[in-house]
Design a protein that fits this description.
- There is one protein chain.
- Helix content is about 45%, strand content about 10%.
- The strands form five sheets. Strands 6-13-12-7-11-8 form a six-stranded parallel sheet. Strands 14, 15, 16, 17, 21 and 22 form a six-stranded mixed sheet that branches. Strands 1-2-5-4-3 form a five-stranded mixed sheet, with helices on one face.
- A hairpin with a 2-residue loop joins strand 19 and strand 20.
- Helix 3 crosses helix 21 and helix 13 runs antiparallel to helix 21.
Length: about 950
Amino acid sequence: MTCYPDKTLATSQDSPTASAPFHAMTIERVFLGWDEPVVTKVRRHLLGDGPPDPAALGGLLMLVPTQQSGRRLRQALTAYAAQYDVHLGYLRPQLPIDLVRGADGVTPVATPIECSAAWARLLLDTDYTGLAALFPARDTEHSFGWALATGRLIQNLRHQLAAAGLTIRKVSAEHLDALEEPDRWADIARLELRYLDLLKAVDRCDPAESRIEQSFSPRVPQGTERVILACAPDPDAVALQALERLSTDVPVQVLIHAPASMADSFDEWGRPVASRWQAATIAIPDAEHNILLAGTPAEQGRLLVRTLLADNYSPVDIGVGVPDPDVVPFLLAELRRQGIEPFDPNGVPVAQHPLFTLVDAYRGLLDNGRYDSLASFLRHPDVLDFLAAGVALSPRALLSDLDMFQNAHLPADLTDVRSRLKNAPGFDTVAAALKHIDTAVRSSADGTPASDMRAFLQSMFAHRTLSADEPADADFGTVAQLVADVLTEYEESCVPSFALDEAHVRTLLVEHLRALRYEVPRMGAEIDLEGWLELHWNDAPCLAITGMNEGRVPESLTADPFLPNALRVQLGLRCDDDRLARDVYMMQAMVESRRANGRTCLIAGKTGSSGDPLRPSRLLFTCGDAELPARARRVFGAPEGSLISYPASTSFLLRPSPPGDIPAARVNLSRLAVTGFKDYLACPFRFYLKRVLRMEALDDLKQEMDTLDFGSLMHEVLSRMAQNSDACNSSDAALLTRFLHTQADGWMTMHFGTSLPLNLQMQLNAARERLSAVARVHAARVAEGWETILVEHPVEATIGGLTVHGQIDRVDRHRDTGDICILDYKTSDNGHEPDKEHLRNPSDSTRDYASTTVAGKARAWKDLQLPLYIHMLAEGNAEWADAIPGYFNIPASTEETAVREWRTFTPELLTSAVTCATGVAEDIIARRYWPPASRVDNDDFESLFTVNLESSVDYDSFLEYMEGTA
C-alpha cells in the first residue's frame, strides 16, 4: 500500500455564541494515488494488503460523498475480509452533511412538509404593501399554489446559503457591497424572520438554522475515536466547519484519490482547487475509440451496449454512467433487450406510479370539481377496477357512455353533470358510477384530509390482493407504504396548527408525495446505472459514461433569481468554477485508475429526447492543443450508429374482419341510410369501417358544439318553425327572427343548461345570426308564393336488395305554378351547389355504375342523396318525379344564405342515380369493400393509417370475410 500523509496545521474559532477556549487542530491529508479505483485504494488504506485486523474499523467514523459510495465501500471491505475468514465490526459510512443533520436540543427540527406549510401560511397571510422590492406586482393573485411554490423557492435559497453557514439575514446585513438589489434581500430577510417566528410558535426549529447551529458543536456516534473523510471532492462547507471543530477532540484524516505530487491542487479538505484544474489536460487512452458521438438518447443506449459487447466484458466488469436522466429509460430498454438486467439506484419518482396519479385525481375531484377532473378520476385504471368489482360496471361501457354524455351536453363541472343526468336518459352507467364513487370519496364528519384520504384508498383497494412474486405488486406495496408514511407524518406534525383549508392540505400532501422517489428491488440486476457523482466510486475495470454533454457534465447551475454566479463566488458558495474543477478532477481520476488495466469510454449525445440539439461537454476538450482539432471534429461530426431513415411502416396489421360479438344484421347489411351511398362512393373500405363496424373517434375533450351539434341545433329550430303554421307562413322577417331566436335559446338551455360558458354563448350568437338570415330568405320565399308542405319527412324504398331510408328536411310547393322543391339544409361554413356536390370528374377507379353524362360530358356520381329523395317520393306518387332538388344553404357568411336549386336536373340523371344506387347496394350485399381509395376528403380514419392504407391491413383475412368464408 502506498499512501502519502501530509499534515496540515490549521486553527479554528468557536461560534461567537460559544464560550469554549481556542484549540489548535491538526488535519492529516493522505494521498492514495490514483493508479487503482478509489474503492480499492480506500479499502487498502483501512485494511492493508494482508490478513485484516478484526479491530481495524473500531472507533471509526467514515464519511463518504454519497450513499452509493458507502454501499460500495461496505461491499469491498466485507468481500476482502471474507477471503481471510475475518469478521470485521459493522461500519456504517455517513455523509459529511450528517454531522449537522438531525435534532439539536429539545426543539424538534421541522420536517419538509412542516416547512412548506409554514411558508404557505405565512405567504397567504402577508401584507405585501411593505415588500414592494421583492413583490412589485401588487395585483398578483396570491393563491395557495403560488404560496407553495414561492415558499419552496425561498426555502431552497436558505438551504443553499446554509450549506456555507449563511442565512438570508446574514447576507443582507453583512454583504451589502456584494448585493445588486439590497432592498430585495432586506424584504426576504424580513420574511425569513417571520417564518422562523412562525415555526417557533409551534415548537419547531428550522432545519437550515439547525445545521448552522450544529456546525459549532457537532455530535458524533458514541465511541468515535477517529474520523476519516474519504475522497469527497465536494462536501458542504457547513459540514466542514463541523468537522473542523470536531478535529479538536478526535483526529481527522482526509483521503485524496490522487498522487502526492498533486498536493497543491487540493485544499486541506481534499477539494480540487479551481485555479489548478481550469487548464488541466486529461490524456484519454485511445481517444479515437473511447470518445464517441451518438445521435438520440436511444442511439446512445445502442452504441454503449454495442461497444461493451465488442470488448467481451462480462456485466460484473462494467460500470455504466448516466449523468443525463433522459438517457436512462432508453438504456434500461436496450440492456434488457440484450439479456442484461440493469438497476437504477436512484429509484423511480413516486409521481410516475399509478397510485400517485390516483391520489392526485382524488385531490382534483374534491377540490376543483371540473369535468376534466371527474373524467381523469373515472378513467384511472384503479377506479375502473373499483367500479367493476363494486357495482359490476364494464369499463368499456362506462368510458363510452362518458364520452357520449360529454359530447352531448358539454358539462363544465360536477354540478353540471348531475343536473344533466337528471334529464338525459340512456346514461345509467355514468349515474351509477357517480353514485358509487360518492360513497368512496365522502368526507367523514370528524375526519381530517389525511384520514379521509386514507379511508378513500382503503375502500378503493379493499378488493385487491397482492402477490410478493409480482414486481408490479411489490412496487405498489412500496409506494403504498410511502403514501401511508406521508399521511402519518402529516397527522403527527404541526401542520394542523397552521389552519390551512382542507383543499390546501390535500395539495400539500400531493406535492410532498410528488417530490419523493422509491427504490425498486434489484431482482437479479447485473449492472447499476449511476449518476456522475457515484461513478468515481465504481471499481469496474470498464467504465462507460453516456450523456457527456454540457449542462450535465459539468452540471450547470441553472439561472437563480437570487444567487447569480458572481454572487456565489463572493459569498463562498459553490460556483461554476468549483463544479468544473470537481468534474475535471473526477474524470481524470476515473481515467487514471483504469489506464493500466481497463477502459473509460465517453459517449456524448447529438440531440435530446425532444430533438433539441446538445453540446458536447467541455471536459471532452481537456486535451493538448495538437489533439484539439481532431477531438472537435469527432464530437461535432456525424454521430456513431445513426439510424438510416427507413420508410415508415406499421408494427402490426389491422385485422378488420368483424368481431364475433357483432350482430349478423350488421355484418350482412340489409338497411342503409341514403347518406351512406356517399361514403361508399368515396371509399368502400372506409364505408365498411364506418357503417359495418361503426367505428368512430370518440373522446371527452370536446369544448364546444361541433359541426353535427350545430347542424342539429339549426335543423331542430327550423323544424319547429315549419311545424308552427303562423311562423312558417309568415312573410314578416322580424317576427320569424324572434321566433327562431327563442327556439334556439330553448334548444341550448335543454342541452347545456342556463349558464352557458363563453364559447357556447358565442356559438349561440353565431346561430342566431344565421337564423336571422334564414328568416329573411324564408320570408321572401313565402312572399314569392312558396309554402312548406313537408318537414323531416321519412322515406323508404328497396334498391338493389337494400332497404334505403332517409328523412327529407323540407319539401316546398309553389302556390301558383305547383312546382315541388325538395330541400336539404346545409349549415357548413361555405355555400353548396347541388350539382357540384353530387357529381365529379371520373377517374380510373370509377365503377361503371357510377358513370354518367351531363351535357355530353363524362361525369361520375359522388353523392346520391337528393336524386334518391326524388326517387323514393315518386314511388308513392309519380307526380313527385318532376320535383326540383336543392339546398337551403345556411353558411357562416350570412350574405350567402340562399336556396340553391338544381334546375338542370333531368329524368336521365334520376335514372342514372338509381342505377348507381343499385350497383352500390349490390356491392354492399356482396361484401365488396375493397380496394380502398388512396385518399378521401375529411378522412375520419386518417389517424389509423400513418402509412399507406393498403399496407396497413391484413388483406388475406379480410378477403376471407368478403368471400363469406370467415
